[in-house]
Hints:
- The longest helix is centred in the C-terminal third of the chain and has 41 residues, at 92-132.
- The protein has 7 helices and no strands.
- Helix 2 packs antiparallel against helix 7.
- It has 133 residues and is mainly alpha-helical.
- The chain has helices at 10-18, 21-36, 45-53, 55-59, 63-75, 83-90, 92-132.
Amino acid sequence: MKAQTSPLDQKSVEKGLTKDAAQSATVLAAAKTALESVSEDEWKAATIDAALEVLPEQLDLKKRIVFQSIRVAECGNMVSPPLGESMELLGREVCLARLDRALELLQITRECAVAAYSSKRKWVSKVKTTQEL
């Protein structure tokens, strides 16, 4: 199922996802795994919260870091109603699709950063070569 798109707040994405893209990708992949174990019939706020509550300890990260990444992926903003309740209303398939969308965004961000770094190294190398002449 394609994620029902919600607008992503740029500042929230920068602070909550792309600031540390590798860490956010780890968090979102773990959240997706945890949520995939929750069936459609069990998809209630309390069950969702219970599935996600163990992640900070499992990942050895602060609770704020973990839930901030998930909240931005699901709601598009760092501020939202309680996460479990929001996710219950969105539904299981939409939530899983939004996690996929955020993971794809992080992959694209990583690829762009690698390409930019590579380009910069080539440019610096050319400048040094030119200066040596």
